[in-house]
Amino acid sequence: MNHQPVEGFSKLTKQGKIDWLVNEYLEGNTDYQNILNQYWNENADLQKLHDEFSENTISNFYMPYGIAPNFLIDGKLLALPMAVEESSVVAAASKAAKFWIDKGGFRTTIINTKKLGHTHFIIDVESHKLQHFFNFKLKKKLFEATESITANMRNRGGGILEIKLVDKTAEMPNYYQLKASFDTVDSMGANFINSCLEQFGKTLKEEISLEEDFTQEEKDSLQVVMNILSNFTPDCIVRAEVSCKIEDLKDDSGISNEEFARKFKQAVTIAEIEPFRATTHNKGIMNGVDAVVIATGNDFRATEACAHAYAARDGKYSSLTHCTIDNGVFRFWIDLPISVGVVGGLTNLHPLVKFSLALLGKPSAQELMSILAVSGLAQNFGALRSLVTTGIQKGHMKMHLFNILNQMGATEAEKQHFVTYFKDKTVTHHEVIDEFNRLRAQ
Predict the structure, then answer these.
(1) Which is the catalytic residue, given 95, 115, 265, 396?
(2) How far is it, in rounded angstroms, from Cα 168 to Cα 176?
(3) Which of 76, 137, 283, 400 is catalytic?
(4) CA dist., res. 54 & res. 388, Å (int)
(5) Is the pLDDT reported for residue 394 higher than 60?
(6) 415 is known as an active-site residue
(7) For residues 84 and 62, what is the distance between their CA atoms, to the nearest angstrom?
(8) Quick check: is 48 catalytic?
(9) Catalytic residue at 299?
């Protein structure tokens, strides 16, 4: 090995961790220590708060925190907080919001808020015998055993909605599930769901061991493999949509309203039938969703996993958005499965998360679901609008221009020169370098 393993890294102080990393991996170069220090917050208490969000923390990793204004959502005008590093995401969302503000804005519908979790277990028992045991004994015991866990959630209007026994033996020998659905109200609910499921596993073992209808051999065959929520929540879903008459679908690209609508619908249809395109299409949707998810302290990995699983729910990966043109009316919508919370986790701790939620009017979890779906739909509209008219690179590279110039060490005066230079040109990396070299050679 080119380096030595470390023992007890997590027990080292923050400075101890940094010293070890710099000496072991960075040749003792203290410039790297300075980089880490630059991102520490000067407020020691605030820095300690951030340090304790995760494990083995040595610094903070900054992302741009931007605002996309002019979102008219269900009659309310909002400015969306977006934490994202990719050029043009905030700009595209803002442009789409402005496009739809005088056409009725975005409308949303909460289709369902059901979340799921499973106790996965193995038992060598005839299916009908296990089902009888579940129906007449176990199900009631599971609800009773979790009453103390669910009390607070039930007081807020949530709790366990249903518990089912699922026979999966056709796919794996002796494999069954206790499949439970939950309403977690304004919390994302992961800890609540997992606590309930772990109690299911314990109660299952206890009740099986006491059941007189099972032989000792059948009892001994029980294995509770795991108790865990599912991040696939196809029944926790929100719809966001926009629509207008084609005659009102004005676009400044120079093509007619009818041609714009036709090409836009074709682009969506291609994403519905072609997985290679659908992957990039949905990635663009998640640009908008994830940026707001991160800004509001929610789990963007869970939203990604769920969205992509949903996109492949029919056995083929497809678009999350859809478009129709009927009787001269253009309609564009998304059905987004998403599970988020506005209480618990970072929502009560991270100062910028609290700012984001305050900016959004302290939404309920369902209202935040709507906002996230709208953000994804707006981002997708902006991307498709560019793709079927001017092309994606014109806007994206113009936003990326400053990244290129910063890498080259351009002065503020030189940056202003490039803004003027590319006012009527498409930005390309090659063209920026050529013009930069020409400018510096003068």
Answers:
(1) 396
(2) 5
(3) 283
(4) 43
(5) no
(6) no
(7) 10
(8) no
(9) yes
